[in-house]
Amino acid sequence: MTNVTRLPESKLDLRIAPDGTKTGVCNLISVAAFSWDNSSDLTLSSSSSSSSSSSSSLTSKSEKNYALSKSSYENSFAVALAIQHLNQGDGTIVDAVNGLNETCNIEFVLEFIDTQSDSVTAAKRVSKRILHTLENDSTYEYNPCGFLGATGGDAETEQMSVVTNLMGYPIVSGMSLDTSFDHESNYPKFARTITSNEGPAEAFVKYVVDKLDSEFLVILKFRRSIYKRLSQ
């Protein structure tokens, strides 16, 4: 019977096979917005009166209608492929990975958490997953080693980071662009594989001023962080 224990002062698990072979296990939890609420907060209903005239009223819609996010599934397939390449030492895409399985006695495994494109849901589900580890719950075979994501946006990553930072778990994002994550004191365990909005925003403004010879720039949309950075 294979025995799995937590390595002291580490986020790695140690798997000991019946023959005594020891393998480190790094369980990465990919947090993705696989679904999102496609329902409207309000729905329009009509009613007819006895005088044959009709009237419309806005009523609250309590039931949610979740739709699937194609891009999140695509991103997750890419993450799964990366894990496979790490375990097999396959350097067909990243040359540095070639032969890694022969020099690194660590196996990478992958779990997924659906945030439903909601930052509160993301924080709750990540917290619950960590709680299983703290309570030595046997629901999961391996404990978390780190977190990936979230694909739903900066708000989800921000909420997750509060939890993961407190519990000492690293979080790596390939989609979070907000410049607030540049502050290492607030996000000591956060890393990302892309640049923040700082560089692109400055480059865009420089292009407008130097190349287009424009003195004014109007930003009409502030919802996404890139527009917020441009306005600054």
Q: What do you see in this structure?
A:
- By secondary structure, the protein is α/β, with parallel strands linked by helices.
- The protein has 2 domains: 3-39 and 60-195, Response regulator (Rossmann fold, 3-Layer(aba) Sandwich), CATH 3.40.50.2300; 197-232, no CATH class.
- 31% of the residues lie in helices and 25% in strands.
- It contains 6 helices and 11 strands.
- It has helices at residues 70-88, 100-103, 119-134, 154-167, 198-210, 225-231, and strands at 3-6, 13-16, 22-32, 35-37, 42-48, 54-60, 66-68, 106-114, 146-149, 171-173, 190-192.
- Strands 1, 2, 3, 8, 9, 10 and 11 form a 7-stranded mixed β-sheet that branches.
- A hairpin with a 5-residue loop joins strand 5 (42-48) and strand 6 (54-60).
- Helix 3 (119-134) runs parallel beside helix 4 and helix 5 (198-210) packs across helix 6 (225-231).
- It is globular.
- The termini are far apart.
- The relative contact order is 0.13.
- The model is unreliable at 40-61 (pLDDT under 50).
